[in-house]
Amino acid sequence: MSEFAAMAALTVPSGRALADNLLAFGRLLRRTGLRVGTADILAAAEALQWVDIGDRRQVHAALRGVLVRRHEDFDVFDQAFLLFWRDPEAGRNAAAMALLEGFRKEQKAPPAARRVAEAMTPPRQPSQRPPGAEETPPLEVAMTVSERERLQSMDFEAMSAAEIAEAKREIRKLVLPLDARPTRRFRPDPAGPRVDLRATIRASLHEGGEILTLARRRRVTRPPPLVALCDISGSMARYAQILLHFLHAVTNDRDRVHSFLFGTRLTNVTRQLRHTDAEVAFELVSHVVPDWSGGTRIGESLELFNRQWARRVLGQGAVVLLITDGLDREGARGLAEATGRLRRSCRRLVWLNPLLRYEGFQPRSQGIRAMLPHVDEFRPVHNLQSLRTLVESLSGPQPGRRMAA
Prior knowledge:
Layout: H1 3-9, H2 17-31, H3 38-48, H4 56-67, H5 74-84, H6 88-104, H7 111-120, H8 145-153, H9 161-171, E1 181-188, E2 194-195, H10 197-204, E3 216-222, E4 226-231, H11 237-251, E5 257-262, E6 266-268, H12 270-273, H13 278-288, H14 298-308, H15 310-313, E7 319-323, H16 335-345, E8 348-352, H17 366-371, E9 377-379, H18 384-395
Parallel strand pairs: 4-5, 4-7, 7-8, 8-9
Antiparallel strand pairs: 1-3, 2-3, 5-6
Helix pairs in contact: 3-4, 5-7, 6-7, 9-11, 14-16
């Protein structure tokens, strides 16, 4: 048996060392933010029966195939596997020291390594108070005002696992009451501004043909449809993961919300995001989206949307949120035409780009230059404050549309 197999199996009288290690590894993955349940641990134990326990690569592939469902979690799993299955105690100490060194040097560690380091750092144990000693007042652990302000302006990509969880809770509180627009439908209203001639004549039949009262009606107003086109390519994976929580919150807060994800192909995830439980909704999304963290074909995706979905979802003054960094693997081929047609089909086209977080941002790529003249608004989307600003903009009076260049 190899050194790795001996560490993993550790023959003990109870014969439960491997199961205990798998349970500990599953708890570590949950602390890093991965969705790992009891059924996943049982499936992992069964998967290890079909591989050589002495081959690290086989064990890594088996556990990764069972315990990881999303492409964006691969880096976190690899870091956790490297540290935990080498030596849990040594890995915990090394992770904690690496985290401290990163703070001393004021350098940003990779997000996956930082999340694993925080998860492997042992929680602070409460001190044992000797008998007769005075009880110390409990510390207030609620987030202070300064911490909330820091979280509002922190880039999603720089957040730790705990900060991402707090950001998701803040996102669920956002409400998006879009400006109500008049529709073609009318509803009965005794104080309505219009006379309903058909209803008036129908009511007169009960009075022998005499018109005693005039029936009135009022035009129905409702928020316009909201359509979100979100880029899930490799350069947008971390932001898309957070923004999906925003789209899920909006979908469950109001009606007529349509969400599409695109990388190398376009996928409609509207039905999946309508599930009230966020974890279940994202699990359903992961089953229907085959190209997460892959390449980007923005032009082809927008062209497909214009051809197959625009007439279905862009009626009655729809507002479109185009979430992408504009980096297209196909260059600018067909991108200007597709974006221009999308703009003409909706009332308002808002482009949300995380690259605007840089102060010296310049539209140098071909894709960005092709799309920029055809959008109504160009906004950043990289932290909570940018999302709040977006909500305020969409909820207020709509600006007049400028002419396309």
